[in-house]
Amino acid sequence: MPATPARIVITDCDHDSIAIEQAVADAAGVELVLAQCRTEEDVIAAAAGADAIVVQYAPITDRVLAALPQLKAIGRYGVGVDTLDVDAATSRGVAVCNVPDYGTEDVSDHAIALAVSLARGITRLDRGLRRGEHSLLPVQPLHRMSTRVFGVVGLGLIGAATARKAKGLGYTVIGSDPLAEIGTTTAEGVAVVGFEEVISRADVVSLHVPLNSHTHHLINAGVLAQMKRGAVLVNTCRGGVVDTAAVADALASGQLYGAGLDVFEEEPLALTSPLIGCENAVLTPHAAWYSEESYAELKRRTLENVLEVCAGRMPRNVMNAGVLV
Predict the structure, then answer these.
(1) Does residue 120 have an active-site annotation?
(2) Which one of 25, 178, 215, 251 has the minimum C-beta count within 10 Å?
(3) pLDDT at 20 over 50
(4) 40 labelled catalytic
(5) Spatial distance between the Cα atoms of 59 and 189, rounded to a whole number of angstroms
(6) Is 238 tagged catalytic?
(7) Sign of CA dihedral 158, 244, 113, 56
(8) What is the CA radius of gyration of the chain?
(9) pLDDT tens per residue, range 94-144
(10) How many CB atoms lie within 10 A of CB 143?
(11) Of these residues, 266, 267, 279, 293, which one is catalytic?
(12) First to last CA, the chain
């Protein structure tokens, strides 16, 4: 009697199509089901009997995992896994897979674009010109990039790529990372210093850290007060790393010259957010990851990872490889 094909459930996905995932599933001869789960109960109901799940935003908690004892793998669309209980999955022998490098170039490009648009006053000048204003006063003072310090918080793949690109623009680049030794220099030529030194020295601070209990509100009112007055803050990692109200206050007071933000504590960003009224903020809707190339790679590799686990093989990307040994 032939074996029953593996069943994979996409718990939630706001992409316009799952054609790429379906093609991968069809080629492997597995069943693929799309749901739109928002709660633990939704996930438990939709994933009953599934061999693997692919998740975008749905909560995957210990309670969910306990109700799905047959589960072998969880695939996350993206890098961060803050909606997944990785420890609970590991304790239950469930592999957790992500795609840590699919958007490295895209996110770092976006971080640089946000930084440069603020460094040159592009968006404020554009808005003023559309109102018939031709003055440079709203964006003064602007400074030559080669006279400025660019600080990178988090020197993983995306942070390192951002540092490389900032260096190419002429910035002096410094960075901090708990896994990098202070006093050393990275392959990209970044001087590794402590977090406090990045905050106090940098004219631009770009954030590239995961969201966890240690990094939640890493950028708060106290830290913002330690930054150089007139510095720029860029965040393309996770919204919860930044205290939204504190950043809005710093923008209003002039402590921050500008903020380039692609991620927010609550998404989508509400029109009532204090950030909306900040002329010196450049805001984008969690778009840094996107290019046609990254979009296709993310979808294909997310499904391939869980298919490999279901087939008894080690996937390209797995966060808790010990469960598969």
Answers:
(1) no
(2) 178
(3) yes
(4) no
(5) 39
(6) yes
(7) positive
(8) 22
(9) 999 999 999 999 999 999 999 999 999 999 999 999 999 999 999 999 999
(10) 12
(11) 267
(12) 29
